[in-house]
Amino acid sequence: MTTQSDLQRAVERVGQTLELEGIPRMPARVFAYVLTCSQESYSARDLAEGLEVSPAAISGAVRYLTDNRLVVRERAPRSRGDLYRLVDGDVWATIMRARVPLVDQIRSGVEDAIAILERRPDHEVGLGLARLRETRDFFAFVEADLGEMLERWAKWKAER
After folding, report:
1. How far apart are CA 148 and CA 152, in angstroms?
2. Domain boundary at 73, 88, 103, which?
3. Which of 20-34, 49-63, 68-82 has the lowest mean pLDDT?
4. Would you give the end-to-end CA distance of the chain in angstroms?
5. What percent of the chain has pLDDT over 70?
6. Same-domain check for residues 11 and 77
7. What does the pLDDT look like over 82-98, one tens digit per residue?
8. Angle between helices 100-117 and 91-98 (to 10 degrees)
C-alpha cells in the first residue's frame, strides 16, 4: 500500500494491535479488514484486493480465522465461492463465549499439574506450586465471572 487511505491505516492499526495479542500477522490483518470495512461479507478476492496481498495469503488467514471462530465461512449465493463475515450479533461477546472451553481446559491442566506437584516435598516445589495455585484460582475466577461479565456488557451496551 503506497499511499494509504484512512481506511487502510485504520485496518493496519487494528491488525497490528491484534498481532501484538498473539494473532498471526495475516489473520490479524484480514480480521481487522472484516471488522473495519463496511461490507457484510467478503470473498477471498475482496480480501486480497483490499489488503493488496496474494490469494494464497488470504487462504491461510481465513482458515486460521474460521478454525478459531473469529469469522464464519458460508457459500456465496449463486456461486461456487465462499464468503467470509463476522459471527452474527455481538462479535466480541461471541468470541469471549467461544473461549470458555479454553479457560476451562487451562484450569483443568493446571489442576492436574498441581496434583502431581503436591506429591513432592514443599522445598522442591514451593514457589512453583504457589504460582500454579494462583494460576488455577485466576482461571477459576475468570470462568465464574465470564457469564456475569457478558450479561453486564449486554446491559451496558443496551443503555448506551
Report:
1. 6
2. 88
3. 68-82
4. 37
5. 98
6. yes
7. 999 998 778 888 888 87
8. 30
Where b means 16+ CB within 10 Å and e means fewer, 67-105 reads eeebbeeeeeeeeeeebbebbeeebebbeeeeeeeebee
Position of cell 516445589?
Answer: 125
Residue that the C-alpha cell 506437584 belongs to: 117
For the chain, what is the domain count? Answer: 2
Examine the domain organization and report whether 27 and 48 are in the same domain: yes
Q: Do residue 133 and residue 62 come from a single domain?
A: no
- What is the phi-psi region of residue 110: left when phi exceeds 0, alpha when psi lies from -120 to 50, beta otherwise? alpha
Q: State the alpha helices, DSSP H only, in the chain.
A: 6-20, 25-36, 44-51, 55-67, 91-98, 100-117, 122-159
How many Å apart are CA 89 and CA 132, to the nearest integer? 36
In a domain, 115, yes or no: yes
pLDDT of residue 76: 78
80 and 17 in a single domain? The answer is yes
Please tell me whether residue 97 adopts helix, strand or coil conformation.
Answer: helix
Of the candidates 103, 106, 69, the residue with the CA atom closest to the CA atom of residue 89: 69
Q: Which amino acid is at 53?
A: V
